[in-house]
Amino acid sequence: MHHLTRRLAVALAGSGLAARARASEWRPSRPMRIIVPAPPGGITDIGGRLVGAQLQAAWGQPVVVENRSGGGGVTGTVEFLRAAPDGHTLLVGNIGPQSIAYTLFRELPYTPASFAPVSGLIRGPNVLVVHPSVPATTVPEFIALLRARRGQLNYASSGIGQSPHLSGVWFLQLARAEAAHVPFRGSAPALVELLAGNVQFMFENLIAASQHVQAGRLRALAVTSAERSPLLPDVPALRETAPELAEYDVSTWVGLFGLAASPPEAAAACNAEVGKVLAQPDTRTRFAQAGSAPHPTTVEQFGDFVAREIAKWRDVIRREGLVLELG
After folding, report:
1. Which DSSP symbol is given to 109?
2. In DSSP terms, which residues pair with 324 in a beta bridge?
3. Residue 18: how many CB atoms within 10 A of its CB?
4. Any idea of the CA torsion for 311, 203, 220, 228, to the nearest 10 degrees?
5. What is the DSSP letter of 243?
6. Are strands 251-259 and 89-94 parallel, antiparallel or unpaired?
7. CA 136 to chain centre
8. Within a 10 A sphere around the Cβ of 107, how many other Cβ atoms?
9. Which distant-in-sequence residues (6+ apart) come within 8 Å of 152 by Cβ?
10. Which fold is adopted by the domain 125-245?
11. Is 322 exposed, middle or buried (0-12, 13-18, 19+ CB in 10 A)?
12. Which branch of life, at top level (predicted)?
């Protein structure tokens, strides 16, 4: 069995090397499509249009970016799966439909095996913010308050199963604390209620919250990523604030996927072009303005990253007992 496993690993490594060697030869033979399972204007859409412009400039073939929003990203993902597996159609996936959804939704019409990783694109943190009336200025003080007033504080989110909601769920699980979740239909109304003091805290998109933090209308206790954010350099990462939070690491992310049956050399060729645009200084500046950063990876690194994300959210969601029907 050991020799069989070793031979399989060698074969897989060889196939990866061969795909990379052929990547320089692969070119689209007709126009390409990039499906974005989100509305125009958001970070997923920004990632798709950046990739589209790069591929079109590099290969001289038209690249059409199609926004297919709905169903928390599931609608566009299902549309992508109808495409021919020839490397000419790509999906700009994100943390929702490509990691959280596998455990959150009952009878999801696809599995992780439906996709081939191509490249990471963008990563960015959420931030834990509290209303100024909350008598806690550090995460340890806040955890002590939550434990003392178990279940009495409320936290808002942009909706059940969204990244900000699950950021809160995992935090409470690790902190061994309780709070009441108040979901809203989107981030904007949730933030309004927090600013009014009708809820006490939330995990919010960094850009959306930072202006209120800087104006003193909200207090930022920590960012959810493994490292601090340049936008709020004095705000610690959650994992550095308490021993029980050492494993905490949450970033909203966007990445590029192909179909599982697509040619590996097509994924390798696209990965190489994505790496070029992510390395450009103006790309980093543009992402920073959205509270994010480039997330360049190899094909293999991105596949490993997505697998870890799926496993992480599977454990969090199952502990919480969350199951939703597809609407």
Report:
1. S
2. 105
3. 13
4. 30
5. G
6. antiparallel
7. 29
8. 6
9. 179, 180
10. D-Maltodextrin-Binding Protein; domain 2 (3.40.190)
11. middle
12. Bacteria
The pLDDT tens digits for 68-86 are 998 889 999 999 999 999 9
Tell the residue number behind the tokens 């959650």, with chain if given.
238
Tokens of 303: 């596949």
Tokens of 275: 């790496």
Residue 224 DSSP symbol: S
- In the chain, alpha helices (H): 2-23, 43-59, 74-80, 101-104, 139-148, 163-175, 187-195, 206-214, 264-278, 281-289, 299-320
Q: Which residue has the tokens 């990203």?
A: 73
Between CA 130 and CA 220 the distance in angstroms is 7
> Counting beta carbons within 10 angstroms of the beta carbon of residue 168, is it exposed (0 to 12), middle (13 to 18) or buried (19 or more)?
buried
- How far from the centroid of its chain's Cα atoms is residue 117's Cα? 14
| Nearest CA among 91, 35, 145 for reference residue 260 | 91
Q: Which of 324, 45, 314, 313 is nearest to 163 (CA)?
A: 313
The burial class, CB within 10 Å (0-12 / 13-18 / 19+), for 185 is: exposed
Q: Do domains 2-124+252-325 and 125-245 have the same CATH topology?
A: yes
Cβ atoms of 306 and 94 closer than 8 Å:
no
Output the pTM of the full model.
0.89
Domain ranges of the chain: 2-124+252-325, 125-245
Number of Cβ within 10 Å of residue 176's Cβ equals 11
Query: With contact defined as beta carbons under 8 Å apart, do 60 and 236 qualify?
Result: no
pLDDT class of 15 with cuts at 50, 70, 90: very low
User: How many residues belong to the chain?
Assistant: 327
Does the domain made of 2-124+252-325 have the CATH classification 3.40.190.150?
Answer: yes
Q: Which helix (H) or strand (E) holds 204?
A: strand 201-205
The pLDDT tens digits for 123-156 are 999 999 999 999 999 999 999 999 999 999 999 9
